Amino acid sequence: MIIQQDLINQLIHLNPQSKLAEARIIRDVATDHLQLAFETIFSTESEHLTQSIQFYLAEQVARKTGSDLLADYYVEQFNASDIQLNPTQYDSALNYVDVIIEKPKQANKALVTAVIESGWHEKDFLLLAQLVTFVTYQARLIEGLLLLNGQSDRSITPPVTAGIWNTVSHTAQGRIAPTAFTQDQLGWESWLNARDVSTLSDEEANVMKKMGQISSEYFLLLAHQSKILELRTLIDRGIFYTPEGLPRWEREYAAAVVSKVNGCIYCASVHARKASHLAKDRKNDIDQLLATQTGEVLAQNFDERLLAITDFSASLSTTPISAYPIQIERLRALGLDELELLDLIQSIAFFSWANRLMLSLGEAYELN
């Protein structure tokens, strides 16, 4: 697969002289590694995931997520006649895909086990999981940038409410599972077999040590596709650990908003805690977000800036995407510049990817 230029810029016809183009260059770590992740995922084939099937699945994901622009690109990359999906091998996998696109909190161990029992090895399954969740990230990034660039005419939609979350008292391994959002530190257990450290190559082990991931069950699971994991980690750092632009606590806060929409208690705990650490005077706001009950509007009772950030973050996180131009206009009126808006969109879009991996590969448990 040969891509002549950055795919995102190509699809949105980004003017190289624009402020948005300049902002994407400033955030070159995230921009460049996003492109590399795209090229790596779609050039990594497996027994069940030929490139044609990968593009077919990507089109389905993009369409359901709400990015027709991205879906139309993917549909041009394969011939329908090449797609042969044996029900015995693919029905459970397609069911898994549908759930993590539209209702990620409904993923469970039985859903994952059904895919493995139909003949998928962990490495193949992790490629599927990364592909699907990556495309949900791409779709939200593209639609957010179209809004930012004045290329979207989406209609105003009602305020977004908090999604459902875990109500089961114990995990599959019998640990106590959290049933409320919290800033406390949580553990996470996998529904699949993570890699043993001894099976990592020297290069894989060195990368994971450098990233601080070598002792994490979650990252050792993702290491079944170690190059994708490396690129994903670099994208994460290019979005959340960069100077200037949107204050870092607001990026972490946006991640917590997305996690409330998707019902990911684990991700919310990590990023709400980071937001509180970075902005200790905003802890009450962050606690209020976490306390929002299922069905209650997320964006309420904050100051004007946090209200606008919450509203947009939640709308860009829905499936299908429901963000609209007036939300960007409000943020601009509150003083957010192009780089800050790019940081916000990337933070939101990335957690579509992160939440769906966490929710569909394992579950959180309490450490106390």
TrEMBL record:
Domain Carboxymuconolactone decarboxylase-like, first and last residues per copy: 230-290
Protein name: Alkylhydroperoxidase domain protein
SUPFAM superfamilies: AhpD-like
